[in-house]
Structures are given as structure tokens and as C-alpha cells.
Amino acid sequence: MGTDETPFGVNRSLLRLDGEEPYLCLHFVIIYVRDQDRALHFYTEKLGFRVVIDHRFADGIRWIEVAPADGNAHLGLALLPPDDDPEKLIRPEALIWFITEDVHRKYDEWRARGVQFRYPPEVPKWGGIHTRFDDPDGNSFGLAGFDELTRSVEAQRRSLAQKYEGERRAAQEIEIAKQLQARLFPQIHPETKTLEYAGVCLQARQVGGDYFDFLDLGQNRLGLVIGDVSGKGIAAALLMANLQANLRSQCAQALTHPELFLGSVNRLFYENTTDSAYASLFFAEYDDDTRRLRYANCGHLSGLVLRADGECCSLDSTGTLLGLFPDWECKFAEFELAPGDLLALYTDGITEAVMDHGEEFGEENLIQKLRQCRGIACEAALNAITNEVRTLGADQQDDITLILAKCKAEG
Length: 411
What we know:
- With about 400 residues, the protein is α+β, with helices and mostly antiparallel strands.
- Helices cover about 30% and strands about 25% of the residues.
- The chain has helices at about 35-45, 85-90, 105-110, 145-185, 235-250, 260-270, 350, 360-375, 380-390, and strands spanning about 30-35, 50-55, 60-65, 75-80, 95-100, 115, 130-135, 140-145, 195-200, 210-220, 220-230, 280-285, 290-300, 305, 310-315, 335, 340-345, 400-405.
- The strands form four sheets. A five-stranded antiparallel sheet has the order 9-18-17-14-15. Strands 10-11-12-13-16 form a five-stranded antiparallel sheet, covered by helices on one side. A four-stranded mixed sheet has the order 1-4-3-2, covered by helices on one side.
- The protein starts with about 30 loop residues before the first strand and ends with a strand.
């Protein structure tokens, strides 16, 4: 049987994308044969054609189509009706010509396989080169070539080779970018006595614009960072790297001058990116001695704190997005964590993930999932939540980034 799932569909040639004219192509050319199995063997084994269709209908009639391995000229091998005159249907001078870039090579190849040619390749007065061959039933075909065709084929080959080489290099560069970006995410988790924490970023593409980080701020302080840069793909990844570099280079002043710290990050991000670039950012400083959380929410989604008694608190925005204005201010707020509290920082790849019925996952579903996972380790909870979001329905459309931090019962 042929491999096409829809053997009588339109998958025979390139479709025009403009749709200005109705689709039209050569469907097939019928060749009458006395024995379909014998004919099929000749066209596939001796000529090297591929089987496009081999289908038997309910009434027992068998339909076969074959085509050159690299072409879409289909030949329908129809069984000669027993009552029809073979001399009328078997064409000793069939009006079918095959074109090749190298007639001599194809002649030698097919002749070695037992194909019967009427004469060696000839150069007629009209130019080019041609010969004729017969199939087992006596159908005769022309085989021809032209210098223009050979040059055209070679030009197409060069063009395809350049295209494939460009795609290979692009894929290689993307892979390098993916590996480099993976190194931008935290490789070391600073030790804490009173906080268990974990984070993950699952990118929709090979690289993306979501960012999270864990920073050792000194004096038993931990920096929890999550951000979402505008755009997608390589452009967003470059902006994300810029934001990460700014944060890490300026974080030394986060303890003593937090507002100046974020102001410097914003200024650098603004100066080093285009006018349309921006990022949302949630920066939190956790005091491992007092369990106090000091945070700035710069246009990011609200952080969630699930308290031990089941209450859910929101850590709302305290400022605008980064990178839009050179002069920028963002206030800090404080929140006292208690043993058993669970902090969740996330990007919209979670809440805006679309379920099968078309609705978004949303904040309420995330809160419900956090309640279900509060009794397990942060790493396990991360996996449970992100795996569920990734399998909601449609393909992942946006980066999925999540930080979970649970306040321990004892220091």
C-alpha cells in the first residue's frame, strides 16, 4: 500500500498561498497495463519510482499510482479491460516524456537494470538530447534533457544547499544561546536556616525572556528575583541577559539602599535597550534571622503568600515596569512570614495558560494547587504545578516560571 494517509487528496504539488486562482494541477496520466503486479515491479524496481497509491476498492478494482522519487508526475497503472482492444490503449508511442538533467547517466542506470531502450541517446536538430524506452506492456516513453534544465537544477541545488547550511548554522547558534542562557539561571542556592526554596523556568521556545534568580546579599539575607522581559525568542533572551547582568552587578547596594539599587538597574536597562523594551520584576529580600520579607513589585504579577491557616495574601505592585523611563521610582513594602507560610512568585505563563475548554488557568487555580501542594517539598510542588500547566491542552505558548519558598517551622 502507499504511505499517503489521504491517497486521493491534493498533496501532489506546491499550493499557492495567495489563493487568487482555484487550485489546479495534473492529477495523473493513465497507462494501461495487462498485469498490475508486473507493471508495479517494473516501475519501482527498474525505474526506481515510488508507490504513491496502491488501493483496492470495495468492488475489487485496484488503483495504482507511481511517480519518480523526486517528482510529482503521477502515472496511473490501470488494468487493461478484458473487452478493450490492446492496440488502442497500449501506446507504442505514448505521448509522455520524462525530463532529466543527465540523460546518459539515467540511460546507463536503467539499461543496467534491464530496461529496453529503442536507441542510445541522440542529439536532434532541435537541440537537447533524447532516447526512448518501453515498459513490459509495450508502452513507450521519451527521456530527454536540455542544457537549460541542467543549469536550472544545479542552481536550485546550490540555493537549497545554502538554505540548509543557513538553517544548520541558525540551529547551532540557537543551541549555543540555549546553553548560555541556562547558565544565567541560578547555579548555586545560598544556604538558609529558616527558608526552603526552589525555582524553575520552562521555556516555550529554546530561549526566552523569563528570568528568576537567587542572590546572596550578605548578612543572612537572600534575594528572590523573578522577571518577565517583553518579547519572545532571541530578542527577549538578550534583554533577559541584560537585566540579569544589571541586577547582579548592582545587588551589593540592595541591603543598605534598596531603592537606589533598583533605580540603578532601571537606568542601566533603559540606557542599554531600545525604547520599546521593558520588563516586569519582583525583587524580594528575605531576612533569614527575622523571617521578614522586604519586596518591590515593579509591574509584575502579585506575589502570593499562603498562610498556615489557609488565608492567601497578595503582594501587589509597588511601582511601574522597568526600562520605560530614565527617571523612575519604586517603593518597597514589608511582609512578616511565619512558620508554615508558602510564598509563590510566578510569571503569566502559568496563569494565562489556556485549558482545553478555552479558559485560562488563572490565579484561583494556582492558589488551589498551592493549597494541595503545601505539605510537600518545594521542589516536588514545583514539578507538580508546572507539569499540570504544561499539559492543560494546547501547546505551551509562553515561558513558565515559578519560585516557591516555604518558611520552616524551626530555625
